[in-house]
Amino acid sequence: MEEALPGVLDLGTPSAVSLPAWGEPDKPDGYKRMHAAVRRLVDAHASQGVLLVTHGDAIAAVFESLRPGTMVYGVDFCAFIQVCCGVHDGDEWEITEYVGIQYTDSFS
Which of 17, 42, 61, 104 lies at 20 to 30 Å from 33 by C-alpha? Predict the structure, then answer.
């Protein structure tokens, strides 16, 4: 990617928080932590487009936090969500597109 986008990628942004020990015991705490980390990165680059490459749990965490009452039960390899800020509600994030995410909305 760096070769295709020379001078565009910021590969050196360090984590603003320490990572927990392997095997977080509580899914809700992990999801809150992941969503907060994504929010910090996006807010730090608010005037730019941001591409975050991450694992399925982080995608599920952001998806579930933006669609309360949903439960993600599957994230395909190379799945993604496109999130835009201020589409309808000013400062709020909104999912504008997603691919490869299986969820149910029967949990609230």
Answer: 104
pTM of the full structure: 0.67
Give Cα separations from 56 to 61, 76, 77, 86, 91 (angstroms): 9, 8, 8, 25, 25
CA distance 51 to 53: 6
What's the one-letter identity of residue 75? Answer: V
Quick one: tokens of 36? 């907060």
User: Per-residue pLDDT tens for 60-96?
Assistant: 988 888 888 899 999 999 898 888 776 545 557 778 8
State how far the Cα of 89 lies from the Cα of 56, in Å rounded to an integer: 27
Q: Are 31 and 39 in contact (CB under 8 A)?
A: no
